[in-house]
Design brief:
The structure is a single chain. It contains 14 helices and no strands. It folds into three domains: 43 residues, Orthogonal Bundle (Arc Repressor Mutant, subunit A); 156 residues, Orthogonal Bundle (Tetracycline Repressor, domain 2); 68 residues, no CATH class. It is mainly α. It is globular and about 60 Å long. Helix content is 74%, strand content 0%.
């Protein structure tokens, strides 16, 4: 396991056991079996570690859900979308509770801007979902429908983040699909129009460039141990600079890396890049 990833995972365990404030850098390094100097080579401070953990969590969420929207069969896409999100919330509910309860760490202006950009990326994923699942049937109210879908997610996330109650996931997802279908079929007075949606999504979020993706790949390669994921990243980086690989080979390489914790975000960016290029 890469040192940076090890620090993040061990720190999360300590945060869950004793709280963020009560956890010191010394305790984190002791649990990892590394020196303080090694910690500060990866993170400038505990606050930076916390923000990196949050950033990694959000990237994994966006990457996983975007993959579902682009790769599941259209017939069950809406159900699979809700199920993937709720399973993610359920799986990581303890993580979320740590940060909901303790929000007194420093959040920089740059990180807030980054969160806004992530929200825009997720908005794009929801719009893709609506387009794939409903097509032209909801052209007049798709922005309002996308807003309602996100509202459902935020509302029902409380079942996992604020209330410790058992949830029948299948029934919940079926209910959400039913509600969404009713809104899609019967809304005649949409509130969120394309213009309003654009006003809500400022500052604008641009696609990552080829050079930016290559830089991110190089950063990860420097820390990765020899593995099929590392070999796949090398080939993907080479293809960005000198395209030669077929779509089938590219898809296979992306499948190789998408489950690796440090590669999820890169796999998302590459899928978006190649879709944009097409």
């Amino acid at each position: 396991m890469m040192k940076k990833q090890l620090i993040m995972e061990q720190a999360l365990e300590l945060f869950a056991e004793q709280g963020i404030d009560a956890t010191s850098v010394q305790q984190i390094t002791d649990k990892c079996g590394i020196s303080k100097g090694a910690f500060y080579l990866s993170f400038k401070s505990k606050d930076e570690l916390i923000l990196t953990v949050l950033d990694d969590f959000i990237k994994r969420f966006i990457s996983d859900i975007d993959y579902v929207v682009n790769n599941r069969e259209k017939e069950n896409l809406l159900y699979e979308f809700y199920l993937s999100i709720l399973n993610f919330f359920n799986e990581h509910s303890n993580f979320a509770k740590i940060f909901v309860k303790q929000q007194n760490f420093y959040i920089s202006k740059e990180f807030i801007i980054k969160l806004e950009e992530y929200q825009q990326l997720f908005d794009r994923t929801v719009f893709k979902l609506v387009d794939r699942y409903y097509g032209d049937k909801v052209e007049d109210n798709k922005y309002d429908l996308a807003y309602c879908i996100q509202g459902f997610m935020k509302l029902y996330a409380d079942l996992f983040f604020s209330m410790d109650i058992p949830v029948d996931m299948n029934r919940l997802c079926q209910s959400l699909v039913e509600k969404t279908d009713l809104i899609a079929a019967h809304t005649t007075i949409p509130v969120i129009t394309k213009k309003i949606s654009q006003l809500m999504n400022k500052p604008s979020c641009e696609n990552y460039s080829k050079d930016e993706i290559c830089t991110l790949i190089q950063q990860e390669l420097q820390e990765m141990e020899e593995s099929i994921e590392k070999d796949s990243l090398i080939l993907l980086k080479e293809d960005l600079s000198n395209p030669k690989l077929s779509p089938a080979l590219l898809n296979g390489l992306l499948e190789n890396i998408r489950h690796h914790p440090q590669c999820k975000w890169i796999s998302y960016l590459l899928r978006s890049y190649y879709a944009f290029e097409k």
